Amino acid sequence: MNFLAHLYLSGDQEEIMIGNFIGDFVRGRTIYERYPFHLALGIELHREIDEFTDSHPVVLESKIRLRPKYRHYAPVIVDMFYDHFLACNWNRYHHQPLHEYAQHCYRILQKSEPLLPPQVKYMLPYMIKGNWLLNYAKSEGIHRALSGMAQRTPYNSKMDEAIHELTEYYSDFEKEFLLFFPDLKEMSLRFIENKLQH
């Protein structure tokens, strides 16, 4: 899953949201020694979400469709596609309109800047200026994000071309997302509840 899903699956606790958001940029196992408890919980939740997603049979169907052309970049592309479908189906999952939720998230991240890793501090102004969270709902927004990622990969990933597969197999990818996401949401809620009880 990508930025929108990681923020959404964190619930309303701001430090958990921040931790989940920065999870890709934090290395090592000693997160509870290095970060405040709720922020470390968010980082751990990020890792649980990634592991759960990578091993889910429905997600595997999405990845198989992309693997012949995109090989090991297929999971990255599926993450982007699924954020698109979360944005498109936002009203199913959250009472607050997506444009308001996005601004809420940006405010939380901005005021938490001292806690952010350097790469995230660098990226955040571009994210806010381009309103990435809202623009995931548009095919152009996903295409722009994939093109940016393609430019940063060391090999010719062709991720910028994946918009063609999204268009061609749109209903298949959306069906798989809608099947998968309730499982991911349940896992995330259970994980947070269990951690907060201990």
List keywords for this structure.
198 residues, mainly alpha, globular
Task: Kindly describe this structure.
The chain has 198 residues and is mainly α. It has one domain (57-197). It is 76% helix and 0% strand. It has helices at residues 3-8, 14-22, 31-34, 37-55, 57-70, 74-88, 90-93, 98-111, 118-130, 132-135, 139-152, 163-168, 170-197. The two termini are 27 Å apart.
Helix and strand topology:
Elements: H1 3-8, H2 14-22, H3 31-34, H4 37-55, H5 57-70, H6 74-88, H7 90-93, H8 98-111, H9 118-130, H10 132-135, H11 139-152, H12 163-168, H13 170-197
Instruction: Assess the beta-strand content as a share of residues.
Output: under 5%
Q: Flag low-confidence runs.
A: none
Helix content: over 70%
Q: So what's the overall shape?
A: globular
Task: Compose a concise summary of this entry.
The protein is mainly alpha-helical and about 200 residues long. It is about 75% helix and about 0% strand.
